[in-house]
Design goal:
Elements lengths: L1 H17 L6 E2 L2 E2 L2 E8 L4 E6 L5 E5 L2 H4 L7 E3 L7
Length: 83
């Protein structure tokens, strides 16, 4: 009986170790996120440097979303996977 519990425990622990969440990301974070470099109140846009590619792209946001995209902090764009 002890051996059965030992084998079940070993299998369960190996399963936990091998399970990991797969994310479209690198060591710097998700590839649809990046550092907000600047913002523009005229058109509610932000320029963001991508975490994965270091490319900079400008996105026009809704006013409510723009209010939460602070310069110097990370912000994720949900309708793209990377840029």
């Amino acid at each position: 009986m002890k051996k059965l519990f030992l084998v079940i425990g070993l299998i369960a622990s190996l399963g936990l170790i091998s399970c990991k969440k797969e994310v479209d990301a690198n060591e710097n974070g998700p590839c649809n996120c990046g550092l907000v470099l600047s913002d523009n109140v005229q058109d509610y846009s932000v320029s963001i440097r991508n975490n994965c590619s270091n490319n900079v792209q400008t996105f026009i946001l809704q006013p409510g979303d723009w209010m939460n995209a602070y310069v110097g902090e990370d912000y994720c764009i949900t309708n793209v996977t990377s840029w």
